[in-house]
Amino acid sequence: MRPLWLACCLCLVAAGVDAPLAMAGQHDAARDAYERAAALYPMAQSPLLALSELARRQGNRPAALRALQRVFDLPSTEPERSDPWWRYHVEQARNVDELLEELRRPFQPGAAP
Fold it and tell me: Which CATH number is correct for 1-75, 1.25.40, 1.10.132, 1.10.150, 1.10.540?
């Protein structure tokens, strides 16, 4: 089972404005992915900003403003606004030592070909 923060980030990446869903014109699927991310982390601003941008690019100003209003309605202090996108660059490498060891294993003396 993948961690919750990763599930949220995957939704954001898959639906990104320059990502597969948006590029393929699958705006409903992209919006659904952003909504899933927002449901996983209700205090995160990233999926809400993404929803606003998606609506804006589709010319849906009212939906873009509604998504922005949801951002403005979030708590004003950072600890209350947990957003996995803010720490993705750190979290994605949380097990780097383990991954590097796995990468080096075949090249160690005595390793099976």
Answer: 1.25.40
Tens of pLDDT, residue by residue over 44-89, are: 888 898 889 888 888 999 999 999 999 999 988 776 677 777 666 6
Instruction: Residue 9: name the closest of 95, 94, 92, 71 by CA.
Output: 92
Question: Is pLDDT above 70 for 98?
Answer: yes
CA 93 remoteness from chain centre: 15
Q: What does pTM read for this prediction?
A: 0.65
Which two tokens mark 105? 């294993």
Q: In the numeric block, which tokens belong to residue 4?
A: 């919750």
Distance set, CA 99 to CA 4, 105, 106 (Å): 20, 10, 13
* Structure token digits, residue 67: 């998504």
**Token pair of 77 as six digits:** 């202090």
Alpha helices in the chain (DSSP H): 4-15, 20-23, 27-40, 46-57, 61-72, 88-91, 96-104
